[in-house]
Glutathione S-transferase N-terminal domain-containing protein
Amino acid sequence: MKIGGTSLDPLFIWKKKHSIAEAVDFATSVAATLARLGSGGYVAHVGKRPAKLLELYEREVCPFSRKVREAMSILDLDAIVHPCAPEPRRFRSVVEGYVGKFQIPLLVDPNTSSTVTDSDAIVRYLFRQYGDGKVPLALRMGPLTDATSKFATLLRISKASESPPTKEPDDLLELYSYEASPYCRLVRETLMKWEIPYIVHNVARGSPKRAGFAERTGKMQFPYLIDKARGIEMFETRAIIDYIDDHFGTNGRLKAN
């Protein structure tokens, strides 16, 4: 079953359909993308493809995780994402089991049996292993890259509020997304809030996956959520956020009780 349909591209449509607070929320998401000059918006430097999904332990409101997500969008890499809230509960022990302490971002690559920490080391690893070996300028400017990534994070710092983790989906949710999209960011922040693991299909501009996506869904619009366990596929940022909150967040927990 597919839900949603109308494109929400211009900000004035968002304002018309939603509250002023939501419009401001969207505007700061746009500003976060602009702060990084749209890094993660286009596919480039693509090399060999991993046979197995990468796994990423990260936090949406973490400037260092942002750099890794940008790299994965540029390289058109899919992954199982384990989003960690500001006070992580669900995945803390897993991360500590890998590296002896809680440290994110953390990349686990089953294709090479590699575990990599430190954002710059992860970025270099990804471009060496799955790209052409050359890290794009936007990700190799050292302090300037970190500063702009931190500024982008500050614009979204209100999303660092605490929420208790609730039930996980019966099957991993799948999200078609890419780092530079302000709409996709809002959905990823919601998944982080509840610490819900999911498969991300990165589909930045130039992604070869876009053609198959458009053929399957009938249009080119992101984000797009798939919940196989419930037979749900849906467009629309607000509809997806409401769905996640209702079924996996506090609302879902209350309904279960």
